[in-house]
Specification:
302 residues, mainly beta, four-stranded antiparallel beta sheet
C-alpha cells in the first residue's frame, strides 16, 4: 500500500511459498458454505496457504481500502465494532444453525432475523433453549401474527445468569445458498419503525396526494417524531407532520405539485429531536419482489 496525504494506492501481490503445501492443511479448513470450498480449492491450486483470520478492526480497514479506497473514520470504526449483527445461511435441507451466548439474570434481549427484507427464501423459526435443550422461547412469523412476513423477532428476559442456545432453521426444513439471513442481537431499547403500503405514487398538479405513514412504536417508545419527505422535486411540496407520544400510530403526509411532469425517488424520514441515532426511514414493499425499499418513486403527471 502506498499513501500520499489522504490518497491511497493498493497493490495485491501473491507469493506462493517454497515447496509443496500438504493437502491435509486444506482438508482441515472450515467450510461453512460453498464459497469457502471454492476459495480453499483456488488457494490449493495456487499453492497459497490461507491467512490467519483478521480481527474486526483489520477486516474493516481492508474492506474500506478494497472497496472505496480510503480508511474508515473513527466514528465508522466505533459504529462497526459496536454492531452485534451477524449473517449466515441454512445451506442444506434439515440444517440447524446454533449460537451459544452468555447472559445475565434479568437481562432483556431481542433477537431479530431478517430474511424476506433481504431477499432470502428462508422461512425462519427461532428457538431459544438452555444448554440442556429445554425450550424457553420460540418465534416465527405466524406466531407473531404476520404469516408470510418471514422476518422474525424473538424477545426474552433472562431468568438466571448462564449460557443459552439460540437455534435457527427453516420452518419447512428447506435449505440452499438462497436461504441466507441476517441476525441481530440487541438489548431491548425503545425504538420505532415507519412504513407505507406502496413504493410508487402518482401526483397531478392541483390535486393533493395524501400518503398514510404507519408508525410502529416498540418497547415503550413515546417520543414525538417529526416526519418529512426528502428528495422531492422542486415543483413538489410536502409539509412535515408530527407523530405525538405513544398514541401516535399513523400520520398523513400531503403532497402538492405544480409545473412540468417529473419523476423522482424520495424517502420518508423520521427524526427525533436531539437524537440523531433515532433517525429512521420508512420502508415499502416492492412490487413482485420479496424485499422492502426505503425509496419511493414519485411521478408527477400533467
Amino acid at each position: 500500500m502506498a499513501r500520499f496525504m489522504e490518497k491511497f494506492a493498493v497493490c495485491n501481490i501473491s507469493i506462493p511459498p517454497a515447496g509443496k503445501v500438504p493437502a491435509e492443511l486444506y482438508a482441515r479448513l472450515p467450510r461453512a458454505n460453498f464459497i469457502d470450498g471454492l476459495v480453499w480449492d483456488k488457494l490449493q491450486r495456487l499453492g497459497i496457504t490461507p491467512s490467519e483470520p483478521a480481527n474486526d478492526t483489520a477486516f474493516l480497514r481492508r474492506a474500506y481500502l478494497d472497496t472505496i479506497g480510503r480508511l474508515p473514520t473513527p466514528e465508522e470504526v466505533r459504529a462497526f465494532l459496536a454492531d452485534k449483527t451477524t449473517s449466515g445461511s441454512i445451506d442444506a435441507p434439515g440444517d440447524i444453525d446454533v449460537y451459544q451466548f452468555l447472559a445475565k439474570k434479568g437481562q432483556q434481549l431481542s433477537f431479530r432475523i431478517d430474511a424476506r427484507s433481504v431477499g432470502s427464501q428462508l422461512d425462519p423459526l427461532l428457538r431459544l433453549t438452555d444448554v440442556a435443550g429445554k425450550r424457553l422461547a420460540q418465534a416465527d412469523d405466524a406466531a407473531m401474527g404476520k404469516p408470510g412476513e418471514r422476518d422474525v423477532i424473538l424477545t426474552f428476559t433472562v431468568p438466571q445468569g448462564g449460557s443459552y442456545l439460540l437455534e435457527l432453521h427453516d420452518q419447512n426444513w428447506h435449505g440452499s445458498h438462497r436461504h441466507f439471513y441476517r441476525l441481530r442481537a440487541v438489548g431491548l431499547e425503545p425504538d420505532y419503525a415507519l412504513s407505507v403500503t406502496s413504493d410508487r405514487f402518482v401526483l397531478a398538479p392541483g390535486k393533493p396526494l395524501d400518503i398514510l405513514v404507519s408508525v410502529t412504536r416498540r418497547d415503550g417508545f413515546d417520543n414525538d417524531i417529526e416526519i418529512t419527505l426528502d428528495g422531492l422535486p422542486a415543483n413538489v411540496t410536502a409539509k412535515s407532520v408530527r407523530s405525538v407520544g405513544a398514541g401516535g400510530k399513523t400520520v398523513t403526509l400531503r403532497l402538492e405539485a405544480n409545473g412540468e411532469p417529473i419523476s423522482a425517488a424520495s424517502r420518508i424520514v423520521g427524526h427525533v429531536a436531539e437524537q440523531a441515532d433515532l433517525t429512521r426511514k420508512a420502508v415499502a414493499p416492492r412490487i413482485k419482489l420479496p424485499e422492502t425499499t426505503p425509496y419511493l418513486w414519485l411521478n408527477v403527471k400533467k
